[in-house]
Write a structure and sequence with these properties.
The protein contains 7 helices and 7 strands, in the order βββααββββααααα. The chain is α+β, with helices and mostly antiparallel strands and 306 residues long. Strands 2-1-3-7-6-5-4 form a 7-stranded mixed β-sheet, with helices on both faces. The relative contact order is 0.09.
C-alpha cells in the first residue's frame, strides 16, 4: 500500500508522487517493490533487509542512500503473542524526499502523520523527520505497555478464584511480548545515539534530548513491567495451585460424608440377621444414617474442609 504526503505544517496526503515529500509504503506487494526499484531507484538490497522480520535496528549506507532501521511495536492478531516488533526503514537519497517502508501492517506512520498535522509541525529535513518518527515510536511503545498493564490488572480478579491455566498462559504470552519490546528498545536507543552523531549539526538538541528521554523511559518501563509480570505470574501460579488444593479438599470432605450413609446402608443390607425386628426398622436405620452423616458434616465443617 502506497501513500504520498506533502509537507505543509504537517504531512498531508496527496495523490501524486511528484508532489510528495514523503512516500510511505506498508506491506509492499510486487508492484510496490517494482515501483521503489524502478521509479525511486531504491537499492534492492535495502528492501531485502527490511523484509527480514528479525532485522536489527541500525544505520545502513548504500551508495548515496542512507537507511535508518527502527523496530516499531505492532499488535499481533494472528499469533500467540499479543504484541511483537517489526523493522521499519527510513530511506533518503536527497533532502527533499523521504521513503519509509515496512513489510508488516501497522498504524504508526498514520499516527505520525496525524500528529504532525494536529501540532502543525513543519519538518524540513531528514534528521528532524527521523527524530520525530522515533518520538512517535517511543510513545507507541508506552501506549502498548499501558494496555499490557491494564490487562494484568484486569486479570487479577479472575485469577484470584481460578483453577484453570488460561489466564496464566495469557500472562506468559504477554511476557514474551515484553522480551521483544526490551530487545528492540535497546537497539533503538543505540541507533538514536548514532543518528544524533550523524546529524550533529542539523538537529534540534532540545528536541533530540526529549526523544532520548522518551525512548529511555519506554526502555525503563519495559523492565519495570517485566518484573511486575514475573512477580504476578509467580503469585498467581501459587494461588491457582492453592485453589486447586481447596477444591480437592472439599471433594474429599464430601466423599467422607457420603461414605457414612453408604456404610450404614451396606451394613443393614447384608443377607444376615439384624438386631432390629420392628416394622419401623427401615426408618430407624435411615435415622441412624442421617444422625451419623450430620455428625460427620459438623466435624468436617469445623475443620473447614467444606
Amino acid at each position: 500500500m502506497r501513500n504520498f504526503y506533502y509537507n505543509e505544517k504537517g504531512f498531508r496526503e496527496c495523490d501524486s508522487s511528484l508532489k510528495a515529500e514523503w512516500i510511505n509504503i506498508i506491506a509492499p506487494d510486487a508492484d510496490d517493490v517494482r515501483y521503489l526499484i524502478k521509479e525511486e531507484d531504491v537499492p534492492a538490497i535495502l528492501l531485502e533487509y527490511l523484509e527480514d522480520m528479525d532485522e536489527r535496528p541500525r544505520v545502513e549506507r548504500n551508495g548515496e542512500w542512507l537507511m535508518t532501521i527502527v523496530r516499531i511495536p505492532v499488535q499481533n492478531n494472528n499469533g500467540i503473542m499479543p504484541y511483537v516488533t517489526v523493522p521499519l526503514g527510513i530511506m533518503s537519497k536527497t533532502p527533499d524526499k523521504i521513503i519509509t517502508v515496512c513489510y508488516h501492517e501497522n498504524d504508526l506512520t498514520r499516527i505520525f502523520a496525524m500528529h504532525t498535522c494536529q501540532k502543525n509541525v513543519q519538518i524540513d529535513n531528514v534528521s528532524d523527520f527521523t527524530l520525530r518518527l522515533f518520538y512517535t515510536t517511543a510513545n507507541r511503545y508506552l501506549d502498548f505497555l499501558k494496555d499490557m498493564y491494564n490487562f494484568v490488572v484486569g486479570s487479577e480478579k479472575s485469577l484470584s478464584n481460578s483453577v484453570a491455566n488460561d489466564n496464566l498462559k495469557q500472562l506468559m504470552n504477554l511476557q514474551k511480548s515484553l522480551v521483544f519490546f526490551n530487545t528492540s528498545l535497546k537497539g533503538d536507543v543505540l541507533v538514536l545515539e548514532r543518528i544524533q552523531k550523524i546529524y550533529e549539526h542539523e538537529i534540534d538538541e532540545d528536541f533530540a534530548e526529549d526523544v532520548d528521554i522518551e525512548m529511555r523511559q519506554a526502555d525503563t518501563t519495559v523492565g519495570i513491567y517485566n518484573d511486575i509480570l514475573k512477580a504476578t505470574m509467580d503469585s498467581y501460579a501459587s494461588i491457582i495451585s492453592n485453589n486447586l488444593n481447596n477444591v480437592m479438599k472439599r471433594m474429599s470432605g464430601i466423599s467422607i460424608i457420603l461414605i457414612v450413609p453408604t456404610f450404614v446402608a451396606s451394613l443393614y443390607g447384608m443377607n444376615v440377621d439384624i438386631l432390629l425386628t420392628s416394622r419401623y426398622s427401615f426408618w430407624i436405620v435411615l435415622g441412624i444414617a442421617a444422625v451419623l452423616t450430620t455428625i460427620a458434616f459438623v466435624c468436617l465443617r469445623r475443620l473447614k474442609w467444606i
